[in-house]
Design a protein that fits this description.
This protein is an alpha+beta fold and about 90 residues long. The protein contains two helices and three strands; from the N terminus they run αββαβ. Strand 1 and strand 2 form a beta hairpin. It is globular, with a radius of gyration of 13 Å. The termini are far apart.
């Protein structure tokens, strides 16, 4: 399968659509808050782990040319450099 090129905006838009429409209700549970969810924006497959690295590797094994997007569960940013990460209220 040939990899498609998406703009940053399109990647974020597709990831948010998958997350809001199909994934959020599965992953936003107490034991996952603060973990990373990695989403294949084309298939909707996703994986959750503490840092996102294992999830990305597993998804790449299954879909070698996948366009992946990562998000920290329960937060509006994935990481902060010297700032404060605030929880998103749902």
């Amino acid at each position: 399968m040939q990899a498609l090129l998406f703009s940053r905006e399109e990647v974020a838009k597709r990831a948010r659509q998958w997350y809001d429409g199909h994934i959020r209700q599965q992953v936003e549970v107490d034991e996952n808050i603060g973990k990373m969810v990695i989403i294949d924006i084309e298939s909707g497959d996703y994986k959750v782990d503490k840092t996102g690295l294992k999830s990305a590797q597993q998804l790449r094994t299954k879909h070698p040319n996948a366009c992946l997007f990562g998000s920290r569960i329960g937060y509006n940013v994935a990481t902060s450099f010297g700032g404060v990460m605030e929880r998103v209220s749902t």
